[in-house]
Amino acid sequence: MCVFLWIIQVFLLMVPVIPGVVSFSWGDEVYFVNGDRISGTIVRMEEASLVVKTTHSGEIRIEWAKVKGFSSTTPLTIELGDGSQYKGPVNFTEADGFQMVEPKEVIEAKSQEDTKEFFLDSIAAINPMPWFRYNADAFLGGNRTAGNSETQAINGSMEATMRFGGHRVGLGGRYNYGESVEQVTARNSRGSLNYDYFLTEKIFLGLDELFEQDSFQDLTLRSSTSIGLGYQFFDTQEDELAISGGLGFVHQDFKTRPTIQSPAYLWSINWGYWIISDRVRIFLDHRGFRDFGNESTALRVNSSQGIRIELNQHLYLNFAYDIRFNSQPLFQNKKFDEAFIFGIGWAIES
Prior knowledge:
By secondary structure, the protein is mainly beta. The chain folds into two domains: 21-126, no CATH class; 132-349, monomeric porin ompg (Porin), CATH 2.40.160.40. 5% of the residues lie in helices and 67% in strands. The protein contains two helices and 22 strands. The chain has a twelve-stranded antiparallel beta barrel. Strands 1, 2, 3, 4, 5, 6, 7, 8, 9 and 10 form a ten-stranded antiparallel beta sheet that branches.
């Protein structure tokens, strides 16, 4: 049986289960300066925005300056301007204009009283992101058909990212293989290593190394070393978006032709968004290079985009459309390669 068909059948079996797995609590309320209020679940406050999950609009962002107060029946981690943190449910006393926290757990504080009172403007963050974060996943996909035509393909990848303080380190690897009527039609791989240093909360300096191999492009090894600047628009549990650009140096070793070395400029776009919180995510991982100089003026693009569906805390289904473009391929190879990849993955995160 085709692996794709099996994956789709598993997903169809999981669809009725997913709604029962997800449970939400809507016992929180947010009060606005203009007198309005909304109900939902308070997710976090960061970058002067309060994130609230609602039944009617999903997750929404509210300007912190427009918030007069809030109440929560579930424990929240409140971080004050002096760095102290308290965890517990929150009550809003409108007459006095301050929040009252009844801590169940004092994480870091000078006092450990049963009730903590503070003014709204003393709050620095709600449910702040941890100082050290990591995520890693492994993915395997492929298909096989038999009958009038015989084809098979396998696609695998592994990725890991660590974020601590102003530093971010990423590792990645990918392998693609395909056959048709016992003839190899695709065999390529790539690996990446990148390091980002955040100069500010949004702007980072990036150092990247990319290695590529492709038997059908006569490519033994292509190494691309680059350095550039990037801008992190978002980096939360709800969505992420980063763009970067810079200069680099490309070294290409081939089986049947001389080595090519050339400078290049590059750009990248990394975007992800949960259209259904913690369940369905769309993503784009795009990277482009343009060589310049006497030996090469090639334009190369690697882009992967698709949708990811969480089955449980660790397992997910992945449906991706991969594009590989080279404006100056060797021999009579095509400039454009594409692949539809379906498979199952395993992930962990902090």
